[in-house]
Amino acid sequence: MAFRKHLTGVSASAVALALVGGFPAFAAAQTTQPETPDVNEEGQPVADEEDDGTVIIVSGFRESLATAVAEKRNSDLILESVTAEDIGKLPDDSIGESIARLPGVTSQRLNGRANVIAIRGLGPDFSQTLLNGREQTSTGDNRAVEFDQYPSEIVNQVVVYKTPSASLVGQGLVGTIDVRTIRPLEATEQVFAIGAKGSYADLGALNAGSKEFGYRVNATYIDQFADDTLGVALSAAYTDEPYQLQEFNAWGYAGEGTAANPFVIGGSKSFVTSTQLKRFGVNGTLQWEASPNFMVTVDGFYSNFDDDQTKRGIELPLAFGAGFDVDPFDPSTGSTTTTEFGEFATSGTFTDVRGVVRNDVFQRQADLYSGGINLDYEGDDGWSAFFDFGYSRTDRNELSIESYSGTGYNGDGFDPQGDGTSPSDTIDFVSDTNGTTFNPTLDYSDPNLIVLTDPLGWGGDRVQAGYYNNRIIEDELFQYRLGVAKEIDSFISAVRFGLNYTDRSKDLTPDEFFVSLPNGATEVAIPQGALLRNTNLDYLGLGPIVSYDVRDLIADGTLFLEANPSNDVPAKAYGITEKLMTAYLQMDIEQEFGASVLTGNFGVQAINTEQNSTGVAFTDVDGDGVQDRVDLSLGDNYWDVLPSANLSLRLDSGWVFRLAASRQIQRPQLDDLRVAISYGINNNEADSPTGLTPFISGGGGNPRLRPYRANAVDFNIEKYFAGGAGVIAAQVFYKDLVSYIDGSRTIFDYAAFPLPAGQAPATTIGYLDTEVNTGGGDFYGAELSATVPFDVFSQTLNGFGVTGGVGYTKTKIENANGDIDEIPGYSEWVANGTLYYDLNGFSARGSVRYRSEFLADFTGFGGSPTRRLARGETIVDAQIGYEFQPGSTLEGLSVYLQGQNLTNQPFVSQFNVPVPEAVIDYQEYGRRFLAGFTYKF
């Protein structure tokens, strides 16, 4: 058979579906593949002919929806997808936002950007992301891909697989996301497109040196040569955009919830954050059809990512400030409210408060390289084979600098008046469901009052005026894939066999310093020339604060870096390697039963995992009382066997019934596999796992950790109508989680470790506080989704339609202690919907997405993960645009205007005191407006 169909005049965005059958997406899943939608004489996608003989032409956003519906209908896996409306033009401003609008999918915002994806209510730890069918490294600490690393302008399609097949390598527990770029021989015509957009953040330029306006530019070139047997595609995009954030953050809440001792804010660490995101991405693909049966595809992707944040604010020790010389809270000076869980102080006054003015910097720079080569053969005798090599690498530097200033060193106070007084603050406060606001008496913008120092004595014996933490991370992945297949004219329509080998390594090198004052000083005035425009904290009632760039003060010698000699620093370093050998055997099915057709596949995937971690531990080996460095290497080797089956019964009436069953896994977070362990002698007989003392106990990572594992069943009912342009789908699913990962205490054999000096342990069997595999539980739910063009009701509504869905998920997971646990990222309800109009070049749409409360991931200082309960949120976006029609002098030009987060929905997380006023984070991102154009020559 010929390798591909020559579809004369078809637009590249319409024929993107062929990616599912061509490299490298075919490497992700050898299933019954979707067909390219029908096209008219002008090459535009059309729906099936109606009974009256009319033909419906779709383009723009409706073309994107029609493509997604066709892919959903024709695939044997349960999936959702989104396709670019045109070259370099996804339906949304970012990949994350486009994916978050798919049924059963949502996102967590980071700095106002939707770049962390949750499928079926579960967070990114439970899904896997591929680029063109290949596994990828990440700009984050773990496996989860942050979608900021991929410019949306170079992406042509994203497919979310909710069920796996045996040939889907790199699958996740709740889903697999495959990001796909353009293939030049699928376009069959030359295309040159450019685009640009400007952005505006309505919060304004919150920090000195920040911006409120930004821009993006992109270009794409596609061409074919040598009688359409050689194709080239090049895409490039550059982003320079600001993001602004006003945040309230609480340390936590003190008190017992009684009238005499109500819950009250313990401390506050609130910032104004300005982020400047600069990203350059380029993607190139070369395809050569060496013969009608043999295709060679070479592609590469590079992204340079620079996320520069300025964070300025005040840290206030309040009810937790007994150690900081703060008077105990007196309920008589304020008011309280009665909640279901006890009394909560809604207002009051703190005295003798010594605040820490913070001028911090956080900068993440990453270079991501990805690419590979694919050789694909399809014979005329039914035999086919492919070889694929993929490579991915991320080099990342994550720099965090904290800088402290205040009225004086270690609570002593600076005395600018020379009258012997030590200025501290008396602060009134009001707490409600939006956080806490304050009314101070001090002027934190006065450079005569605020000096560089260690205001609360955090440095102990040293004067610590800040901290410098640079995390250097290298992540590299090689993937080799080989497969053969034979088509058969029987109930078994094809047999597929393949091998995959993946070799991944991830290394962390910490580089940490104290930020110190020169010449043993305890206080240094902020140089007049270093002072910047004050930062306004009026949204908290705190007024303006002094502002400067700590990097400038380090560069000019006002502050200097002093290496941190603590063993805790090298103990954070780790190296992790993971080698996976995968073999699969899959049978495809196609059989007619009267007016219906049964399609699908069944098979098995076997994976051998060899994981290893190197790191450093510290213990007193020689008995001199000094902790000695011990280099460690530890790992494990195990097998997973993953059977799967996908069946689809397709009726001529447009009904499709699907049943899928599979065994699924999700590998642990990479940093949970680190070997870095601190341990020593324990003489507490009650804690001994063997009853023998002394024994060894410690804490750290777990290089022997196994994956999450589940047995899953899915059932779908889908009805396609409107000539294939519309669909209503209902799905139920159930997963029996047989292995879960939870932080706990586990029995651990220290035989491979040097024994601590001194008292010899009675046994090397001790315990380790770490992440462990535990029993699981149930995970089940239902989804309802629809894409409905309104012209099915009346032709007067032609161009109008709606698409979206709602998902309900329930979990019951037991942790290591037998208690019911909350799964990270889990939302019970997720929903989204888009109402649109798209006809004759004019388009308008409004979108809403909702998720109920969930356990959100945050990154603490030093990269340590933190999880807190986030409130539910509803995000509203809108877009209008116009594409100049054929025959117009501006044919090829489209213009559009977008508004994001139009209701200014905040991101809010709660403290573990279940009181609405006990807010930990209240982050306001503001609204964003974008205006742009694309022009296709």
Automatic annotation (TrEMBL):
Domain spans labelled TonB-dependent receptor-like beta-barrel: 409-902
A Pfam family found in this protein is TonB_dep_Rec_b-barrel
Q: Does the keyword Lyase apply?
A: no
What compartments host this protein? Answer: Cell outer membrane
Under the heading InterPro entries, the entry gives: Beta-barrel_TonB, Beta-barrel_TonB_sf, Plug_dom, Plug_dom_sf, TonB_rcpt_bac
Is this entry keyworded Signal?
A: yes
What NCBIfam families does the entry give?
A: TonB-Xanth-Caul (TIGR01782)
Q: Which family does it belong to?
A: Belongs to the TonB-dependent receptor family.
Name this polypeptide is given = TonB-dependent receptor
Organism of derivation: Qipengyuania vulgaris
For this protein's source organism, the top of the classification is:
Bacteria, Pseudomonadati, Pseudomonadota, Alphaproteobacteria, Sphingomonadales
